[in-house]
């Protein structure tokens, strides 16, 4: 079969299209004919060697988000999976390929009527958005700041906050991404690549904000932290797309009466993740979540897709198709 692999860490160009043996479903696994694989920020960071502590067996096939059809089951696996269209978060990668062996415990049936690429966008980013949103405890009438609002999770958080009756200020970089954030329902959009963007948020909000959904880190996070309302402000950390985790003065948190929370789905037991996935699909079926598919690349152009992520030109979900 054809698969994308990298033999060393580095820029997008280390990704190679190669012919490799077909995988075989082992005990507790299924074999999936891949229809699409989602590209995530984490994958691009792993490929670049920017995730300390993660040692992969090289050569490695990325691809942790997969949609496709089960074509075979391994030993000790329910044969009823055969023929079903599924979504999966694959713990060992392998999705950038025509076939992938995936633990049966990682499978989620693709809901009837749901576009497979939309399912990919909803799977990991939807779980992040629903989990982070719950941690933020957004109330009607509050003002919410969503960073990286043109990304998949940021767009979904914007939609959830609007449906909850909040006023949403979206923060992104560049006119294309600001327009995308407004398409997701944001009441105002601010470019955090410009000087004084924090003042622009306060002007749009009419004051401080009650909730910040933080995923950028660095100076962006520090500015956003300063925008939180004294006594009621909550910041939810659910990623570090900028590469530098935010740093806060604990005394400042105490003196201003703020709450800082973190959400990471990788820390949850499988049954809790499954519950969040169910909530995501319920929201989608009810029309409360509408993921944006930004670009679809053929498998052979995986390097170009990663390069677009590295250059931060992507909007919404990027998908690879075999």
TrEMBL record:
Source species of the chain: Spongiactinospora rosea
Molecular functions (GO terms): NADPH binding; oxidoreductase activity, acting on NAD(P)H
Pfam families per UniProt: ADH_N, ADH_zinc_N
Keywords: NADP, Oxidoreductase
Protein name: NADPH:quinone reductase
Segments forming domain Enoyl reductase (ER): 10-320
Source taxon at top rank: Bacteria
Upper taxonomic lineage: Bacteria, Bacillati, Actinomycetota, Actinomycetes, Streptosporangiales
PANTHER family membership: QUINONE OXIDOREDUCTASE PIG3-RELATED (PTHR48106)
